[in-house]
Amino acid sequence: MLSDNLKSQLKLHLIVFIWGFTAILGKFISLEALPLVWFRMLFAVGFIFIYIKFKKIATAISAKTLLLFLLSGCIIALHWFTFFKAIKVSNVSVTLACLATGSFFAAFLEPLFYKKKVVYYEAFFGVLVFIGVYVIFKFEGNYTTGILLALLSAFLSALFAVINSKFVKEHDATIISFYELGGGVLFLTLILAVSGGFSATFFQLSINDFWYLMLLSSICTAYAFIVSTSVMKFLSPFTVMLTINLEPIYGIVLALFFFKNTE
Predict the structure, then answer these.
(1) Domain that holds residue 100
(2) How far is CA 20 from the centre of its chain?
(3) Considering its fold, how many domains does the chain have in total?
């Protein structure tokens, strides 16, 4: 019989493979990064809400916990915004390669949050990843903005993973996901409202964009988000981020297949 740790690792590998498609979908969707992430999170919240009602999962939590979930939702919203923005201003391969630095950030953020010593081999592997990104930076000078955005996205991803690893010890992954994604929607709604981003054309999605968003928000977000949160009950943030380093491999291979020379 498989241990909880091994089952969690297998689940995470499946999710990372699914996440390999998110960058491809982000490239296919014609929307700018901010509306793209807003629709993605809004639709995902809808899918999770339907699941909660179907499974009759209790949603009651304390006001303090709700606030923490909503704030962490802002972090994941910023992570996805910088991720898709990096894709729009550079390309899929460069963005995904830079995203691999998440393990470097996790190697230092995890000890900070859990008040323990830095694990030196984790830091060593993280530095190796950063060296690889430096090589990309050196030869892909035209993508400086995209690289910087992708690095920020990687940091936010690691920060979010560390925070969620604490939440999942006490709360159901579905409830965490529901409130975090809801918090992200509220945060982005505020930004769009203040910046005048909402307009008549904002909600006029093309047929292709609508179905790509449906795929992105259901399988690649709602389902993947819940599972990736649940495995943190058994896996450390560094292990999660190190496994996510496989996402660039899946994503780049898919990008080469779909976009060929542009990658």
Answers:
(1) 30-262
(2) 11
(3) 1
